[in-house]
Amino acid sequence: LHYLTPLFCAFLFANASLCLKRALAEGAGATRGIFITNTCFLLSFLPLWWLYPQTIQVDLLWVPAAAGVVSFLGGLFQLMALKYGDVSVATPLLGGKVLFVALFSTLILGQVLPIEWWAGAILAGVGIFFLGQSQPQGGAPSRLVLTIFLSVLSVVSFALMDILIAGWGKLFGFQRFVVLQQIVMFVLSLGLIPFFKGSLRSLPRLSWPWLIGGSLLIVCQFYLLNWTISTYQDPTALNIFYSSRGLWSVILVWSVGPAFGNHERGHGMRTLLRRGLGAALLFLAICLVLLGSAG
Fold it and tell me: Going by C-beta distance under 8 Å and a sequence separation of 6 or more, which residues neighbour residue 178?
């Protein structure tokens, strides 16, 4: 049943992506956006420090610190990918994290993964390729390349974060782990202030509801997903299910996108067919994980 958690988190992330994309379109700005998102993270998680008192293992403090650094970089690259690309391209590519999680699980954690999980990870990656590789009509190729590049940097960063949480989160104490992680993220976010295009007060009023709403959805799915990873310690399988956020993003863009001010569904039938193939491959990847777990 814990595999339902990443499916739900994927749905939340797809909705958050639409909200953040709308906030950026309303003039929020990438640097101010990531600062506000990281502030929401800190304020949401800080009470966990007192709600879950645990002894701090000084020799392991480097782990949440490292997780904070890579998650800050992942969030920054993620928001930049959403700013410069389409949601139905960037979000599926961000789901490619599953391939790097499988690789890092073997290289860093020394896990021997079932062959079905490797096959599922590869199929998920191929599915994400079909979901994200089609060029929107009238779009610039350089924009697509930049979107892919930023998305790959983001997923590598987040994959490293997942490995740190899976390897040491439960040992350190998950709640205090994420609090320290968010403190590091927030401190790094202060370095973005000189790059703001304007003050936070000058943010357009219409961007605030979308920015806060998207940030809170990101916070909720982050906690649920990473608590599950820390508790059950199978990051590869969980991330294969989480990669369904690419499918959710396509479904939401084509169904309710205009309600979010998103008009990507006008890209044409060819794009729809390619992304439908990608969605089918993602579904097959999830089935392979289920079969491997049952076996």
Answer: 45, 48, 64, 169, 223, 226
Q: What is the pLDDT of residues 23-66, one digit of tens each?
A: 888 888 888 989 999 999 999 999 999 988 888 889 999 999 99
Q: pTM higher than 0.70 for the full model?
A: yes
For 27, phi and psi rounded to 5 degrees? 100, 20
Give residue 155's Cα distance to chain centre.
7
For residue 170, the tally of other CB atoms under 10 A from its CB is 16
State how far the Cα of 130 lies from the Cα of 274, in Å rounded to an integer: 6
CB 7 within 8 A of CB 241: yes
Rounded-to-integer distance, Cα 5 and Cα 216, Å: 17
Residues 6+ apart with CB under 8 A from 267: 88, 134, 136, 137
